[in-house]
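User: Could you walk me through two proteins back to back? I'd like the raw sequence and the structure tokens for each, with a short line separating them so I can tell where one ends and the next begins.

Assistant: Of course. Protein one, sequence then structure:
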Amino acid sequence: MRVVIVYESLFGNTRQVAEAISDGVRESRPDAEIDCLTVEEANAERVGAADLLVVGGPTHMRGMTSGLTRKMGLQAEQKESEGDQEKPRHEPEEGAEGPGVRDWFHGLSKTRNGARAAAFDTRADFRLAGGAAHAIARKLRSHGYQLTAEPEGFIIEDTEGPLREGELDRAKAWGAALD
């Protein structure tokens, strides 16, 4: 079985979740070939070979990020850290200014029959925070993928993180349960 996990991450939280999902898949399927890729690394050849495609990204403005919301998020963190010298600075991930999941879907081809997928996001834990996972799942279905799990959200404590305690364990368990 070949599993490809594609993620977008601004400050490292979604990357950590993607890596935990990868660990869970590896634990439950030791024979699986697993690639954990940023959206920049996830080209058609690598994604097309997947038996299971898992896609995730952060939540911005109650849904998937856009070029504008990514830029706003990076600028807000920079401005906040400049205004509060006591607050630790969160460095953006390498490639954080590049394309996000929403843009990546524009280049994703329709899949062959029977290809499976799952969607996840990272999000804040307040009522109006929304989530990106359901929008990612809709995009996957529109590209011909069959979802093997309900879209899942993993909670961050603040805009830049960290992840809530226990979320990486939950992500690993979610990955192990993917079929």
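----
Protein two, same layout:
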Amino acid sequence: MVTAVVIPIICLYFYWITRKEMKLNDSKWLASADVQNEAILTGEIKSITQEKQRFYYHRYIFIQELKLQSETKLISAKKIIPIQNNTEIDNFSIGEVIRVYGSWEGNHFHFNEYEKVKNKR
């Protein structure tokens, strides 16, 4: 008799916790693309690395890592995009000069906005 009451309560409790955790991770997944525009970098793209990573169960993010040669040094810049049905991936080419807007997180520069700069040749 006790198990007929306790087992459904335990199942509902774990269902409630799982739903709460999924909502939290969905909001973190969508917020992964939000970057504060605190700094600006300009440089020539030396290399491009692109990869798809699992964020949480069925949620994925697309990471584009660019090595930018600025006037003084080589900088690693990352763009993180949550993959949805209508996601468009930006295409970068080696040798392009771009200006990126974002913020520093550790040794990497995270950005979500950029513009192509015309070469001064």
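The chain has one domain: 32-116.

Let me know if you want the two compared in more detail.
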